[in-house]
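pasting for ref
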Amino acid sequence: MTTSTPVPGDLTVPRPGPPAAPAGRRTPRQGGTVLAVPALVWYLVFMVGPLIAVFVVAALHWPGMLQPVSFAGFGNVRTVLDDPVFRDAVRNTAVQLAVALPVMIGCAYMLGYYVAQKPPGHRVVRYLLFIPGLISTPAKAMVFYAALSPDGLANGALESAGLGSLADAWLASPSTALACLIALDIWAGIGFTAVLFAARLGSVPDELGEAAQLDGAGHWRTMWRVHFPVIRDYVGVVTMLQFLWTLFGSAQHVLLLTQGGPGSSSTTLSFLVYQKAFIAADLGYSQTVGVLLFLAGLAGLLTIRRVFRQTY
């Protein structure tokens, strides 16, 4: 396609226009949509489908995989809310999140900041921090069991220090079982989280820290007043990941160490889902707790995102 440009003398000079798109050629937007179809189908089948199934099963009275199924409606919700074990699980989960998340994120950030300063041997420190992430969950549980059993390392250390009166059956005591599980959550997650923070802090320009130190700020103020606001959104992402892991993944630690006991002193919501589904064979109750757990996780994610969003 060409256009004409007038010139003196009533002459026109043809000027080339923009080339026309060949017929039948797809735009990049259309091609991207086609490539996204397999991932979209996978997400609908294996993510949205099971989520819908959870809500459906939560409305059923299903006393086992091979047992007859009947519609329960909101009866399961009333049963769950009236169950004292569920209330204990809610309290234990709230305590677990309120203690483990701040301690883990705060200590991991400070440890990551230290590693990001590249002290002598910082590469070795990075590998050492990754060790808990390389150990399987049963192995980590066995380490804590060996340390906290009645004749384990913790009581042996107390006896050696002349504090034998403080020795206890830590995993079998209602007052300490949940605290032991929280300690395991923190130990298992703090190193990996610190490595993530160190990687992100390594991309912050060195000029920011140098300028702050020239103005008289020490490492503590530089860490919290300069670097933390820069990676605030990343802290929110890591906090959301650890929140989800603690909320949904604590069942395996409870299963391996305390079985939710003594009584229900260490039962968490995620373990209650497992216990009711695979031990008590009450699938309706189990998935009702699963729905409430999903709603709690969604509310927690939105809250964390709002707290850690950038303000500039």
